[in-house]
Amino acid sequence: MTTDINIEKGEKNEGCHSETEHPPTQGELLHRHGELNRGLKSRHIQFIAIGGSIGTGLFLGIGSALTKAGPLSLLLGYTITGIFIFVMMMSLGEMATWLPLPGALPQFCARYVDGALGFAVGWNVWYSAAITLCAELSAASLIIGYWKGAEGVNVAVWITIILVVVVLLNIFAVSIYGEAEFCFASIKVITIVGLLIMTFIVMLGGNPQGRRLGFTYWKNPGPMKEYLAEGDLGRFLGFFTTLINAAFSFGGVEMVAVAAGEAENPRKNIPKAVRRIFWRIIFFYVLGALAVGILVASNDPRLLSAQASGTSNAAASPWVIGVQNVGISVLPSIINAVILSSASSSANAFIYTFFLKCNKQGVHWIAVLVTSAMGLLTYLSVQKDGGAAQAFQWFQNLVTISSLFTWSCAAWAALIYFSMLIIFNGFSVFMSGRWNISDFFAAYVNTLIFAVLFIAWKLIKKTKWIPSNEADITSGKDAIDALEEIWEDPKPRNALECFWIWLA
Question: Which CATH number goes with the domain that contains 117?
Answer without folding.
Answer: 1.20.1740.10
